Amino acid sequence: MAEAHQAVAFQFTVSPEGIDLQLSHEALKQVYLSGLRSWKKKLNKLRNSFVTGVYPASPSSWLFMVTAILVTQYSRLDPSMGMIGKIKEHLPVSDYLSDQSQNVLSALAFSTGLWLALILTMRSILKLLLCYHGWMYEEHGKMSNTTKIWLALVKIFAGRKPMLYSYQASLPRLPVPAIKDTMRRYLESIRPLMTDVEFQRMTQLARDFERTLGPRLQWYLKLKSWWASNYVSDWWEEYVYLRSRGPLMVNSNYYAMDFLYVTPTPVQAARAGNLVHAMLLYRRKLTREEIKPNMIPSSCIPLCAAQWERLFNTTRLPGVGLDRIQHLRDSKHIAVYHAGRFFRVWLYHNGRLLQPRELQAQFQAILDDLTPPVPGEEKLPALTAAERDPWARARQAYFQSGKNQQSLSVVEKAAFFVTLDTSEQGLQGTNPSQALDAYAKSLLHGRCCDRWFDKSFTLIVYRNGKAGMNAEHSWADAPVIGHLWEYTLATDSFQLGYDADGNCKGDIEPGIPQPQRLQWEIPSECQQVILKSFSVAQALANDIDFHTFPFKEFGKGLIKKCRCSPDSFIQLALQLAHFRDKKKFCLTYEASMTRLFREGRTETVRSCTIESCNFVRAMVDLSQNVSPGILARGSTCFAWQLKNTRTFTSRP
């Protein structure tokens, strides 16, 4: 109850002697610091919005423009060609404004208008330049003169020192492909999978669609593309993710793995302290928009950064038939799960972030807490691992009041979720390959009841110091999590570090509140729902045949020396392995980002093509001769592929 008493700013009692008022100075101090931090964030956001709004110009360029116009005025030159005089004529008459003051105000108004016009012009030109995508179809290492000129123009109009969202207004919108192109590409993608009779029938159906219903649907798409930032991303998020009723675990969520051969510290609480602090540093950079936008190639072509917005403080809330995404501007705590219990850990003290050593003490207090979980608490996260509708109904029935509502709100409004796992994982033991399989499966689904799969991501720290992440997919795609995880690992190892005993560096300030144990009152009916969800999730996890292994024969460097794309090489290897296993081809999905366009998510690459099928048939036909050019450029890669692709498996 100590936390509840600290939350009360003042108390008063009415007695025959009068009113007894008691103020809590510590609580008032926390209120003041919280308000101060909130206003600082609002001011920073306002400043960043202004800087981003005038990009690719800068606020200092406005001062330069005003100064230049005023200098020309005093030199009796008129670069406005009479516009300043026209503005002066329309200024309100006032006894407080001299003729010189009116000249200054007129010049100020003209220079500001000219500055805004130049910004719009530069932004429009940059948007037109970014519509050119011919560079991606050119051979690697060779660049046409057209692309060289285009790159030079992009560098001129792209501005300097961009913030995270600086290029958002300059990104082109995703174009709607012509219906003829859509039908042609569709028929090309299904041709390898059909007989001549089946393909002829499908061709006729496609032509009928193109003549009848297709034009009307095409008009709807064009209409939406005119007023929406992206005509497909909102539908993609809703119909691919939020309307899916199957379990998020395994089917949608994905994982990120720790260093394979290096463990910075074997102390679980210390590793968690450094990783959480590094993530909070990343969140602060994200809030201040100090993260540099992703650029390709040659660091001059921007990618959309909209997906970064919901990285932290985000939860997917279940609903019957349709989920929704809850995103908060800020969160001052994280939710921690250990040995079947839930805790809240505050991230700030006296208006500052907790340091790694202080976070380590928080996590160590949780590890030392031996209180058992209450009935139903241990397997409660299994609700997020199974089907969505039962979880939505249970949430509505049992988590809308009392302790359950308060505790669930703490979890769902946390910056992110942390699991202090009770197992040890990593490349260890007498059978490293089997240990790596267990490590990957643990990150993918764990024990089916120790990750909160609804959170934007769950940080997992194991007992031996290994770590990883499990991320929900609806709010963004994997590159965002990858960028966060790379920053976190680099900051953990090269910036924060550990002392000789494996503990976090630094000292602990006294008076930091201890972690707060979340309270639950889960009725027996809800416990039955939890157990049912747990059995469904367990059956799904047990059905996963997962094998991962370190591959040391060669890497992307050798493949590139063979003048072949590493991605294309792997896709062909998967096609060859599947054909050898099933003796047939299947429709294949490969995700490809569309972040060259505003608010782009992903698009589908159909890697099973007529050309790839011909390649596979040639590889399995021993009577086929390999051309000398291929042998000269890529004998090692293709020889390995020919002999060893049977070790790969591909799911249709």
TrEMBL record:
Family note: Belongs to the carnitine/choline acetyltransferase family.
UniProt keyword terms in alphabetical order: Acyltransferase, Fatty acid metabolism, Lipid metabolism, Membrane, Mitochondrion, Transferase, Transmembrane, Transmembrane helix, Transport
Choline/carnitine acyltransferase domain: residues covered: 174-623
Protein's UniProt name: carnitine O-palmitoyltransferase
Record-linked SUPFAM superfamilies: CoA-dependent acyltransferases
Source lineage: Eukaryota, Metazoa, Chordata, Craniata, Vertebrata
Catalytic activity from the UniProt record: (R)-carnitine + hexadecanoyl-CoA = O-hexadecanoyl-(R)-carnitine + CoA
Location(s) in or outside the cell: Mitochondrion outer membrane
Domain of life: Eukaryota
PROSITE patterns the record matches: ACYLTRANSF_C_1, ACYLTRANSF_C_2
Pathway: Lipid metabolism; fatty acid beta-oxidation
Active site: 473 (proton acceptor)
Domain Carnitine O-palmitoyltransferase N-terminal: residue ranges: 1-46
GO molecular function: carnitine O-palmitoyltransferase activity
Gene Ontology CC: mitochondrial outer membrane
Topological relation to the membrane, as annotated: Multi-pass membrane protein
Source organism per UniProt: Eublepharis macularius
Annotated EC: 2.3.1.21
Example GO BP: fatty acid metabolic process
Entry keyword annotation includes Transferase: yes
Membrane-crossing segments per the record: 104-126
